[in-house]
Predict the 3D structure of the following.
Amino acid sequence: MTARTEPEEFVFLKRLALELGASDAKIIPTDLIAVEDRVVLKCKMGCDKYGKTLMCPPHAPTPEEFRKIVSEYNYAMFMKFPSKAEANEELMTQLGKSQNDPTIPASMKEKVDKFWADWKDDKSDMLSQVIKLEKEAMKKGYLLTIGLVSGACLICEKCNVAEGICIHPAMSRYSEEGVGVNVQKTAKNAGILMTFPFEKKPESFALLLID
């Protein structure tokens, strides 16, 4: 894909994203964001967070709704964030299981728990940085700027799904995958390397719709 020139007016956001810890960030036209119904199907059939947070399906906007939302924006910033969570080959064989899966060997349980604790910290840090970027964009006059992050919301131990009202609306953000964003394809479209399956350290991704 031919590289596109990033608009000068948004360079300040890219620079700030890198200062806040992103390992890569690209300003892209929104037609490079891949939104696919099959991504949400994968959520429904393969994710244990499905239906358990208000930031994930079926509570999040559908891919059809999100495609319409994206069409109202001209530009976005796609970002990659590094992780301090680390896994060797032995540990990776256990990470595909539920954290409380009784088949995880006792000798590996502490390492598995540490990986997920570090991963949760990384997600929390990334969410904070995305919100800072939103606010900075709004200060510059881009009042409808909004961010999304990869993975399920982890703010609360148990989401207030039963009442259908988020108790942290200023902090919670929809999952990219939960609204249908094909993160791998969008990363490729943006010219950002995504290593999957990861070798030692996972990567997290975020998206900022700018307007």
